[in-house]
Automatic annotation (TrEMBL):
It comes from Collinsella tanakaei YIT 12063. InterPro entries: GH (IPR017853), Glyco_hydro_1 (IPR001360). PANTHER family: 6-PHOSPHO-BETA-GLUCOSIDASE ASCB-RELATED (PTHR10353:SF122), GLYCOSYL HYDROLASE (PTHR10353). This is 6-phospho-beta-glucosidase. Belongs to the glycosyl hydrolase 1 family. One of its GO terms (cellular component) is cytosol. GO terms for molecular function: beta-glucosidase activity. It comes from the Bacteria. One of its GO terms (biological process) is carbohydrate catabolic process.
Length: 489
């Protein structure tokens, strides 16, 4: 029988973070200011105010300029992160102790090219990553590098309007070329863009637009996305040429979508929501062309994407080697008005009465992970990586340094069980990365108290604390999972 019993040897058990949420050291080592350094959080805000403020992203020119002029760190959690910049060696030693096989982080563009349009890279930035990735290999950990995770040098926004300009494509290609030549021997997997579809739901994070600046945000977002698709294809081409055999992939935040009822209209709605929120992005990256179903969408919202000669050929010729996705929740689609809502990653979701929600309102659905894996593999037949999955919740650090996070273990166990089912279903999935497997600043609310880690980091929302690291109960559990290759859950 060809039926698999479980995970292949060599399945990559991993953990993921991003530079802007972890590094800190925002003015050190020659780093320039990035768009994520401008995100604002008043530590005295309560939960509701954090939600209302829409993740502290600048929504108007005034907010943008005020953040730019402010040199402090108190109200800017990403300027502090978890001080990974100074502590990465000790942290990677802990990852090694966990038997981690794969470490995903992003490279900070403004550490390599502080202004984005510099002609020469900042050597100190390159040496930082050479040291970090060498340290991973020393502990037997492979490296999965995201080239851009929501943070571009702010100078590119000031001078060129960020991704609105085609010039940014050239700067991004120069940046990627530098990474391929300087770090190519130390990186095992390349990912040009984190969550390609984020630009549509969080324009500042995804495409670096100040929404208040735009007459029609949708038009601007889709034009920026087009420039990112072109940049992606250029970088895929470059990687294949400069580093033959090095896998380079595409990623989305996967919104697993079910019809709310078996009413045919709800089913049609689910199909369209899936196209517009998910498939559009992976279809371009994996199939190499704009899908025809988007014409109707563009027409309806009066979106007119300006392409240049050669763009379509470029997309067609440079498709990705693998697909990756973040998976946190599922949602339902319906044509009915007034359906109850709940929070989800990047979006407000329609509530599913069959699913429990996390403390932050995200609907927990391990089966949706199996559904997603099957759907994506059926459609593209490409190797898959789960680039992010995990539970964001508040944890209690006890006086004896323990954190009893059995709820996180339950979450991870149920998802890994469904992942294993997908493997037996025949899906070619090669890696699983726990998001924020060391606590980092959360992306949406920008707080420390929404924790995903298997390692606790002693900082609060205002950056106060010792910064010490503590193993949560989930640390030992994941180590056991990794060492038994997913058998001992
Ligand atoms: C993903 C992002 O969308 O979700 C991460 O790639 C983020 O950067 C993660 O941290 C979890 O979201 P949050 O808002 O709970 O941190």
């Amino acid at each position: 029988t060809k039926l698999k019993a479980g995970f292949d040897d060599g399945f990559l058990w991993g953990g993921a973070i991003s530079c802007s949420q972890a590094d800190g050291g925002w003015k050190q080592g020659g780093k320039g200011t990035s768009t994520q350094d401008l995100r604002y959080l008043d530590p005295s805000w309560d939960h509701e105010q954090v939600e209302l403020k829409h993740h502290g992203n600048p929504f108007s020119r005034e907010e943008f300029e005020a953040a730019l002029a402010d040199e402090g760190t108190e109200f800017y959690p990403n300027r502090r992160g978890i001080d990974f910049y100074h502590r990465y060696k000790d942290d990677i030693e802990l990852f090694g102790e966990m038997s981690l096989k794969l470490f995903r982080t992003s490279i900070c563009w403004s550490r390599i090219f502080p202004n984005g349009d510099d002609l020469e890279p900042n050597r100190e930035g390159i040496e930082y990553y050479r040291s970090m990735f060498s340290e991973c290999h020393r502990h037997g950990i492979k490296v999965f590098a995201t080239i851009l995770h929501y943070d571009i040098p702010v100078n590119l926004v000031l001078k060129y309007g960020g991704w609105k300009s085609r010039e940014t494509i050239e700067f991004f290609v120069r940046y990627a070329e530098t990474l391929f030549s300087e770090l190519g021997d130390l990186v095992d997997f390349w990912l040009p863009f984190n969550e390609f579809n984020a630009g549509r739901f969080a324009p500042w994070d995804g495409v670096c637009l100040i929404p208040g600046d735009e007459e029609c945000t949708s038009q601007a977002v889709f034009q920026c996305l087009h420039h990112q698709f072109v940049a992606n294809a250029r970088v895929v081409e470059l990687c294949h040429r400069m580093l033959p055999g090095a896998p380079i992939g595409g990623m989305i935040a996967r919104f697993c979508t079910y019809p709310a009822t078996c009413k045919p209209e709800d089913n049609m709605q689910a199909l369209q929501d899936d196209q517009y929120s998910n498939w559009f992005y992976t279809d371009i990256m994996a199939r190499g062309e704009y899908p025809s179903y988007m014409n109707r969408y563009f027409d309806r919202f009066d979106i007119d994407i300006k392409m240049e000669d050669g763009d379509e050929e470029l997309l067609a010729a440079n498709t990705v080697d693998f697909l990756a996705f973040s998976y946190y929740f599922s949602q339902v689609s319906t044509t009915e008005q007034g359906w109850e809502k709940t929070a989800g990653n990047l979006v407000m979701a329609n509530k599913n009465p069959y699913l429990p929600t996390s403390e932050w309102g995200w609907q927990m659905d391990p089966v949706g992970l199996r559904v997603t894996l099957n759907q994506m593999y059926d459609r593209y037949g490409l190797p898959l990586y789960i680039a992010e999955n995990g539970l964001g919740t508040s944890d209690v650090l006890n006086e004896d340094g323990t954190v009893h996070d059995d709820y996180r273990i339950d979450y991870l166990r149920s998802h890994i069980e469904c992942l294993k089912e997908a493997v037996i279903d025949g899906v070619d999935v090669r890696g699983y990365m726990v998001w924020g497997f060391i606590d980092v600043v959360s992306c949406g609310p920008l707080t420390m108290d929404k924790r995903y880690g298997l390692i606790y980091v002693d900082y609060d929302n205002g950056g106060k604390g010792t910064g010490e690291r503590y193993r949560k109960d989930s640390f030992a559990w994941y180590k056991k999972c990794i060492e038994s290759n997913g058998e001992d859950l």
